Amino acid sequence: MSRSAHPAGPRYADVLPEGHYSAPPADLNALDPKVWAQTVGRDEDGALTVGGIPVTRLAEEFGTPAYILDETDFRARARAWRTAFGDDADVFYAGKAFLSRAVVRWLHEEGLNLDVCSGGELATALSAGMPADRIAFHGNNKSVAEIHRAVEAGVGRIVLDSFQEIARVAHIAQSLGRRQRVQIRITVGVEAHTHEFIATAHEDQKFGIPLAGGQAAEAVRRALQLDGLEVVGIHSHIGSQIFDMSGFEVAAHRVVGLLKEIRDEHGVELPEIDLGGGLGIAYTSDDDPREPHEIAKALTEIVTRECEGARLATPRISVEPGRAIVGPTAFTVYEVGTIKPLDGLRTYVSVDGGMSDNIRTALYDAEYSVSLVSRSSDAEPMLCRVVGKHCESGDIVVRDAFLPGDLAPGDLIAVPATGAYCRSMASNYNHVLRPPVVAVADGEARVIVRRETEDDLLRLDVG
Ligand code: LLP
């Protein structure tokens, strides 16, 4: 049987043992600043406000479901990363978390660079005016056309992911009369998960060139010989939603080991090291992420120490946070539809979106919290499961949550920390239309990605 195959019904109908659930929060109306965007609060009527605007007004104007993005918070987080790493390092925002032209402009203004991993992301970045030399181009299977476009545009670096790509990029760059700056992505043999550090099966995945067996060293050797390439550094990305810095520590140790090997063999000290992204955020009050300045300090110290040990000049460090910048800045607001109490189990609360706007719960068993946001309530908490409107029993937005017992159809509820990997992974499943992204700042709200329409759907269906 396939490892992931499971009968969807029984799996999701599992009833957890009594006492499994944490107690309901002391105050269901409280909005934990750890999971909500910076400018979120409640007004005197009890409605959630963001950037000074009540969510009820946003829902009226833009409809539901909608992703509401706190631009002030986004800029503050981007700036915090930039400041934490200072002028001797580079911060590349990972566009895969969420990308739109407005976001590209904010990043540009705040002095960040951008990591893209497809022709589509590259096109978005360029069309919003991100200078090409501040763009890094990633991917394990970049097409010839994508490479061509990236080199022609003059991207600051292409992160090479395989032996074939080394030859391919060199050839394309040369044919265009260019020398392309490149980093080589290696797999260092660590796989980091939240709170966990697993050193097994690490090389059994599609990204990068394994350090093991001298493959990464061989890749650098080959790349150094090619006229079309300027090898500027080594790249390592160890995973996502990581809280524990020990994975980065081992990764940095191994990358620096390779830099030393390259220096000893070729007399070349590569000037850059990229430690990737993957820094975790709080999805629920139980999560404790680190601040950018703590992360910057820890990573810089690790690399400096390792380089001193290897008698190498400390290379310029770069990082690629996606989730840690955009994740906490947005929430998804839904309207409550049907409410179905199942005796002795829990109450199913259906909303007007679901797995098409947030696949992370179904895909990764991700945990979220949820709050009533159109009003406050003093009713007793009820154990709920927030589900979507799709034709699947696995269509779950929040698996276990407490909402007030007087919840009623028409109420608005919101799920915080949906800024990363929700809109960017949204689908049209069941021909449900993808929600808009509304940016809010200083009392103003504007659509930065509009709601999909039935016309959009039918335009692609050529009959
Ligand atoms: N750099 C590289 C090379 C990456 O592959 C990624 C993420 C990042 C940076 C940014 O990672 P972040 O800081 O956002 O964790 N869809 C999954 C996450 C996939 C991440 C893929 N690569 C999720 O929803 O959790």
From TrEMBL:
Entry binding sites for pyridoxal 5'-phosphate: 278, 320-323, 421
EC number(s) given by UniProt: 4.1.1.20
Pathway: Amino-acid biosynthesis; L-lysine biosynthesis via DAP pathway; L-lysine from DL-2,6-diaminopimelate: step 1/1
Pfam family, one: Orn_DAP_Arg_deC
N6-(pyridoxal phosphate)lysine, modified sites: 96
Active-site positions on this chain: 391
Annotated keywords: Amino-acid biosynthesis, Decarboxylase, Lyase, Lysine biosynthesis, Pyridoxal phosphate
Leader sequence segment: none
Annotated protein name in UniProt: Diaminopimelate decarboxylase
Protein's organism: Streptomyces prasinopilosus
